[in-house]
Amino acid sequence: MPEVNVEINGRRYRMACEEGQQQHLIGLAKRFNDQVEGLKGAVGEIGDNRLTVMAGIAVLDELAEAERRIRALEEQVGELTRAGQEIATEYETLEQRFAERLAAAAARLESVADTLDAAAPLPPS
């Protein structure tokens, strides 16, 4: 299992990860370190453990907000899907009614043509 070295709050940590995930882990560690450094700048030196806990909670808060937004978007997708299905059903119904009316009109035209042919046959050419 590959290992990478990351730096959080000025300290280096060796971490194992799955093959091919090295850069991803390094990126995550950098983002977490940025969170720690941002808190350190906002609240000052408050101790490594407390700072790490605060940064972890801040990251989880961001995650919770992202999960809430994902749920809201999933609900919107569901609503749009249902609306699309309703429109498709309505379209099919209208298309069927139009086809029936067109067929009825064609039958009437055939009937009129038959009546005209019977009443006044065309002269031979």
UniProtKB/TrEMBL annotation:
Coiled-coil region: 56-83
Functional description taken from the UniProt entry: Activator of cell division through the inhibition of FtsZ GTPase activity, therefore promoting FtsZ assembly into bundles of protofilaments necessary for the formation of the division Z ring. It is recruited early at mid-cell but it is not essential for cell division.
Quaternary context: Homodimer. Interacts with FtsZ.
Keyword entries, A-Z: Cell cycle, Cell division, Coiled coil, Cytoplasm, Septation
Entry keyword Coiled coil: yes
Pfam families membership: ZapA
Gene Ontology biological-process annotations: cell division
Subcellular location: Cytoplasm
InterPro entries: Cell_div_ZapA-like, Cell_div_ZapA-like_sf, Cell_div_ZapA_N
Stated name of the protein: Cell division protein ZapA
